[in-house]
């Protein structure tokens, strides 16, 4: 979830040579662990003292644990980095913008895109392919969650603001796709969620009634609130639309 607590850059690895060092340490420890395991196996077959072997295996376990922790650290590091850049993106009325602003990708997204490309270059040459894939595994789903929950931080979003956030999502999706070689459909889902906001409230209600819900009840309530807020629909919506909105709420509750 998006929290109000700030995350500073000190939380992440700023110098990517340090990230490369962690990746190299993982691979080196794994190599050493495998070599030692074979050696200890030979000692066992030659009747080496069991107490000595137990101590050696404890050391082996520490090496293996440290190796696994290095890889998991890299895996989690990318998630914290995404949170660092995307969490501040949605505060206030930042997406209640004009047409000219809709053409520009947000600075935070551009910085995240740049850093992901740099991390790709660093880790691709340091980790085995399956380890490299693991580092970025599931990142698209986390980004979808961050982006969609970001809507709850918005006070207002204009049609141009919807274009802007969709442009941001496309930029992130393209950067991640280049890394994982996967389209990252979770980000398609995030983009389609924000595209709901192109519709007036009655259109949003009608689309869900026609196609069925694809998102959670809370997600739809946030989208509906933003749509009402932008359109100032208290003035424009007639009683029949209000009745349909009530039916919409009941529909989501029972689906």
From TrEMBL:
GO biological process terms held by the UniProt record: chemical synaptic transmission; Golgi to plasma membrane transport; protein targeting to membrane; protein transport; vesicle tethering involved in exocytosis
Keywords on record: Exocytosis, Protein transport, Transport
Task performed by this protein: Component of the exocyst complex involved in the docking of exocytic vesicles with fusion sites on the plasma membrane.
GO cellular component term, pick one: exocyst
UniProt entry tagged with the keyword Protein transport: yes
InterPro entries with a match to the protein in the record: Sec8/EXOC4
Family under the similarity heading: Belongs to the SEC8 family.
Highest taxon of source: Eukaryota
Stated name of the protein: Exocyst complex component Sec8
């Amino acid at each position: 979830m998006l929290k109000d607590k700030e995350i500073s850059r000190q939380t992440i690895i700023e110098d990517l040579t340090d990230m490369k060092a962690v990746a190299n340490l993982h691979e080196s420890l794994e190599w050493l662990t495998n070599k030692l395991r074979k050696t200890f196996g030979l000692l066992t077959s030659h009747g080496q003292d069991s107490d000595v072997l137990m101590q050696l295996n404890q050391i082996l376990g520490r090496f293996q644990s440290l190796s696994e922790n290095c890889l998991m650290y890299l895996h989690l590091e990318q998630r914290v980095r995404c949170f660092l850049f995307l969490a501040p993106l949605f505060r206030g009325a930042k997406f209640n913008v004009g047409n000219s602003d809709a053409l520009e990708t947000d600075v935070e997204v551009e910085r995240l895109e740049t850093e992901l490309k740099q991390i790709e270059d660093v880790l691709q040459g340091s980790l085995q392919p399956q380890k490299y894939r693991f580092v970025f595994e599931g990142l698209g789903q986390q980004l979808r969650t961050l982006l969609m929950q970001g809507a709850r931080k918005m006070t207002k979003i204009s049609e141009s603001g919807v274009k802007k956030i969709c442009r941001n999502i496309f930029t992130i999706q393209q950067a991640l796709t280049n890394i994982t070689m996967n389209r990252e459909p979770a980000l398609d889902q995030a983009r389609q969620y924000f595209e709901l906001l192109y519709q007036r409230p009655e259109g949003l209600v009608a689309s869900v009634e026609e196609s069925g819900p694809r998102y959670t009840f809370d997600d739809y309530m946030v989208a509906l609130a933003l749509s009402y807020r932008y359109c100032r629909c208290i003035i424009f919506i007639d009683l029949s639309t209000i009745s349909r909105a009530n039916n919409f709420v009941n529909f989501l509750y029972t689906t």
